[in-house]
Amino acid sequence: MTAKNYVLGLDIGTTSAKAVLFQKNGLVIAENENAYPVYHPNPSWVEQDPYEIERAAVAAISGAVQKSQINKNEIYCVSISSAMHSLICMDQNDEPISPSITWADGRSVDQASRVKDTFGKSLYLKTGTPIHPMAPLSKLIWMRETNYQPYLQSAKFISIKEFLIQRWFDKYIVDYAIASASGLFNIHTFEWEAEALFAAGITSDQLSEPVPSTTICQGLNKELAEQFHLSQDTPFVIGSSDGPLANLGIGAIDPGDVAITIGTSGAIRQMASKPQTDELQEIFCYGVTKDLWIMGGPTNNGGIVFQWLKDVLGEAEVQKALELNGSAYDLLTSLAQTAKPGANGLLFLPFLNGERAPYWDANARGSFIGLTLSHKKEHMIRAGLEGVIYSLYSIGETLERLAGQPATIFASGGFARSSLWLQILTDIFGQEVRVPASHQSSAWGAAWFGLYALGEVPSLSAIKESIPMNNTYIPNKTNHVIYQELYQTYRELYFALKPHFKALATIQRKEKK
Fold first, then answer.
1. I need a labelling partner for 277 at 20 to 30 A (CA). Which of 35, 285, 288, 412 fits?
2. CA distances (Å), origin 504, targets 104, 309, 366, 494, 497
């Protein structure tokens, strides 16, 4: 019998599917990533093709296995991480009759606002999901009120991970965390919430069966197994959502351990042994297992801010990167490093895509504040990077109110490749920041859940022994003082500009029609 030495984590993200093959000690053996497009058929609509995502996921797994050149029988299992809040309408024949509507979709702004002003508090306290257009609950209410045809014809309403499981194993099941992020799931009873179902106009029969993250699916058909380059009997563990798995994958699982992740969007999260919500409704609280919850807050505006800065201000760097076969982001980061911390008193509110925590305001808009003739491109780039971290710091203040002061901060995601961004993070927070050697924390968290499901590791927290760490960033006290002074202004700007954001957002929506 062939010894099993490897485990594969599949991470279904906002813009790509990544498959990462690990040894049991957390070392990456091979990885493969396949992107898929995002479509905007109408203003504020954000959609994807479920079949394109499935093809990317299959190609990601196949590519990682082939790159590794290992025997497919050496793989313990595949375990799945997925972005939250997606929604697909399925017909009686188990075919999608709508696109996958993503977390970034804003079509249900009016519905979310109305629910929040009426019975939203009651729903939030039961589900732990802030009332916002990101949540499938809000999208379903929009569908019902607009007579969206796929909604009227739908037999099931599922997420993208559920779609893949259904396609590969002919089952409608959903892990607790993905269910919890829908706004339709009660985090106290771990059942579908009747009040939310009534608001959405659906029944629990139209949703998948909620199951633990350790649930195993097995029995690939021969054709699919060949496409994956896996054995037909390879176990697939359902896993969880990318948030808790990112925490797990960097070891942020004990009280006081805080994970900060920035990819396209961003989040700050902390695990808890009981659900905690309050009437301010500023953070999420999702069930992971029946004795573990994750609390925190997401920002819509993470790496997407840097991408926007590159597109708008980085024409020269993009051209130079093409000539040198390098990275425009590296060139812009080097430029930003020439500006002093605080960007010479320039602040950037990074609300380019509306904002989730702690404001949950789809009308929020990005703003440079404090521009003078002395400011140059390097100041604007640096202020943009700093603005993303200020945003996470503001969420962290809210999280601290419910979960206590962070003891250890761990950083993961694409931004953890940037030493400048990490130094800004540790200087603004004023605490040491630990960075794992691998940036694929969600995939490693998923892989560990798989090993746990198969009984190959003793506990979830035991992962701390199998996370190769890279650098630790130490805060500069002088910089921290500068940032704290600027943050006092930053935190007041949203509230000062909020009525103007709403007026401008209304004008912008009219212009797009």
1. 412
2. 19, 21, 11, 14, 10
d(CA 296, CA 294): 7
What's the pTM? 0.89
- H-type helices in 98-251, by residue range? 109-117, 120-127, 136-146, 149-153, 160-169, 176-180, 194-200, 222-228, 242-249
C-beta of residue 409 within 8 angstroms of C-beta of residue 382: no
What would the pLDDT profile of 173-218 be if each residue is shown by its tens digit? 999 999 999 999 999 999 999 999 999 999 999 999 999 999 999 9
Calculate ∠ Cα 134-110-124, nearest 5°: 50
User: Which has the closest alpha carbon to 486: 393, 422, 397?
Assistant: 393
**Is the pLDDT confidence value at 440 over 70?**
yes
Dihedral sign for Cα 185, 186, 192, 195, please: negative
Q: In sequence order, which ranges of 314-411 are alpha helices (DSSP H)?
A: 315-324, 328-336, 377-403
Q: How many Å apart are CA 252 and CA 240, to the nearest integer?
A: 15
Find out if CATH 3.40.47.10 is the number for domain 304-405+481-512. no
Question: Both ends of the chain: CA-CA distance in Å?
Answer: 63
- Which of 384, 394, 385 lies closest to 361, judged by CA? 394
Q: How confident is the model at residue 3 (pLDDT cuts 50, 70, 90)?
A: confident
Averaged over 360-369, what is the pLDDT? 94
CA distance 493 to 488: 9
What value does the CA radius of gyration of the chain take, rounded to a whole number of Å?
Answer: 22
- What is the second-level CATH architecture of the domain 6-298+437-471? 2-Layer Sandwich (3.30)
How far is Cα 106 from Cα 15, in angstroms, rounded to an integer?
17
| Angle in degrees, CA 236, 241, 246, rounded to 5 | 100
- Distance of alpha carbon 362 from the chain centroid: 17
Residue ranges of domains in the chain: 6-298+437-471, 304-405+481-512
Quote the CA–CA distance of 199 and 211 in Å, as a whole number: 23
pLDDT beyond 90 at 362:
no
Measured in degrees and rounded to the nearest 5, phi and psi for residue 314 equal: -105, 30
**C-alpha to C-alpha distance for 411 and 388, rounded to whole angstroms:** 14
The yes-or-no verdict on residue 381 having pLDDT over 70 is: yes
- What ranges make up the beta strands (E) of 96-141? 100-101
Helix (H) or strand (E) holding 433: strand 433-436
CB 183 within 8 A of CB 422: no
3-state secondary structure of 368: strand
The phi and psi torsions of 203 (rounded to 5 degrees) equal -115, 165
